[in-house]
Amino acid sequence: MKELKDSKWFDVEFVPKDYVFSKEYGPRNLDSPVCDSIPVIDLSKANGHIDPVEAILSASQEFGFFQVINHGIPENKVSDAMSVLKEFFDMPSKETHTKGWIYTNSTDYAKDGVHLWRENLKHPCHPIEDCIHLWPENPTRYQEVISAYLVEIQKLSLRILEMICEGLGLKGGYFEDMSEVQLLSSNIYPPCPDPNLTLGILPHQDPSLITVLYQGDSTGLQVMKDGQWVNVGAIPNAFVVNIGNQLEIISNGRLKSIKHRVVNNTRDTRLSIATFVNPSPDCIIEPAKVLVNEMEPSRYTPKQYKEYVQYNNAFGDYTVAIQNALRSEN
User: Fold this and answer.
1) For the chain, what is the domain count?
2) Which CATH number belongs to the domain containing residue 32 in this structure?
3) Cβ–Cβ < 8 Å for 78, 238
4) For the chain, where are the alpha helices, taking DSSP H only?
5) pTM beyond 0.85, yes or no
6) Cβ(285)–Cβ(249) under 8 Å?
7) Which residue range or ranges hold the Fe2OG dioxygenase domain (predicted)?
């Protein structure tokens, strides 16, 4: 075990130089209005709403992002997960299991010598019974609470993927054997004295099939739309879902994996839980055969998922480390 002492690095009057990003990355447009065009989809089909399958497919094609409500996950499972993660980040020191989970504070995450304004906890999730012992042991209820949360996320993600399957015209259950909630990445973004200078997360696309994010009532998530960064508003008890690179490939480009980032603010702390629904490491990722024809030839070269993440360094080093850790435990 390695213990990381975590001082209140963010309790400063001015942003330290090594947290200041260049204009190439800097937010600059923090005052843009909350985007009300990111679709909010009611999964219950209640109250005469548009059919969820049609709505999800349309949102995935145009935006690559949508929010879901009436999703069926009990509020207490979500609030418990957020609570225990807040407890974790509030601990004055953290013990890091070098074979299982990774905690990084702001000084450990950087680009070109500049640090992100956040703290991060990352660990594997699949299969839960095989990797739960690799998760944090403190707070003491962490493993119980997070495992219960992940069971619900797995059900929701399969439900959404099945809707996408239907919308694309794929055979039912197409994603069932290739989608796993493999990774949890939770972030906390403390208040920042000058958010125009910093970033919580750099612009990126996700290497997943889909990513399911809970952000509570916290704002800060921004999505690239028509060349502009727009804010994604926080809707109570909603989940943000975005299309990852692998699903864009499988759909042969019909669905879009969109750049997104997180910006900071001066007043509030943002806490979020991202769960990455990925293919298994050995799965061959390629456009679905029924979506390829003379008019729509394949746009992508078949590749194993583990080759993709290693080549693109999208959690690649961490994915390999986790695979090796789980092999050594068996």
Assistant:
1) 1
2) 2.60.120.330
3) no
4) 52-62, 75-90, 128-131, 142-168, 245-250, 305-312, 316-329
5) yes
6) yes
7) 179-279
pLDDT digit string, tens, across residues 214-250 = 999 999 999 998 888 888 888 989 999 999 999 999 9
Q: What is the pLDDT of residue 244?
A: 96
CA distance 118 to 202: 11
7 lies in some domain: no
Convert the pLDDT of each residue in 9-42 to its tens digit.
888 999 999 999 888 777 755 555 555 568 999 9
Q: Is 5 exposed, middle or buried (0-12, 13-18, 19+ CB in 10 A)?
A: exposed
> Is 5 within a domain?
no
Domain that holds residue 162: 16-329
Task: Return d(Cα 251, Cα 208) in angstroms, integer.
Answer: 13
Q: How many Cα atoms sit within 13 Å of 175 on the Cβ side? A: 30
**Position 2 in a domain:** no
The whole-angstrom separation of Cα 53 and Cα 162 is 9
